[in-house]
Amino acid sequence: ISEKTTFYLDYNQSYTPSNYNNKYPNKEITMIEALASSDNIYAVKMHLFLGEETLTKRLASLNIKNSEPNASLALGTQDITPIDLCAIYNCIASKGIYYEPYSITKITSNNKEIYKHIIEGEKKLDESYCLVLSQLLTSTFHKDLNGTMANYQVPSTFAAKTGTSDWDSWLVAYDPTLTLVMWSGYDDNRPLDYTSQTINRQ
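Predicted structure:
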């Protein structure tokens, strides 16, 4: 059941995450409903069910080496750059093949090519899982599922995931040909004021 929840952890610790605007279904929801609406309670329950180390190990396999197992990791509390986040979602979009990010395709001098980046991918995720996850992530555009991107209808099919805090907003989206990451916030991590939040979330 997705409702306001306090999770009691080891060493007499507790964790009480919240959904955006403190809105809760207060009923059982499916995975597709949770992904569509970015339900934090569902995410933390699943994370703790699988074990905190599971996500840490998966992130390490995708070149995020400095994550520490904790309950909030499921909600995106890991420090990560947009380019590294883009590479992770691009791995899902590429059916489990991970490609190291790069910015220089080739270098020429006097019309002679002196450097060309060689694209080499490495299998990191199961293809069938990636296909299912990509289908699930299209739900963010569905109004009947309270999708976080329901107000942004696009002409083609995209998988997408949003993330929102008091100080920033994230969007990752992809189709078979393009993966993009958008971040908005302030460099000093000060909270977004009402006008900025309205621009970011409408």
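Summary: The two ends are 28 Å apart (CA to CA).
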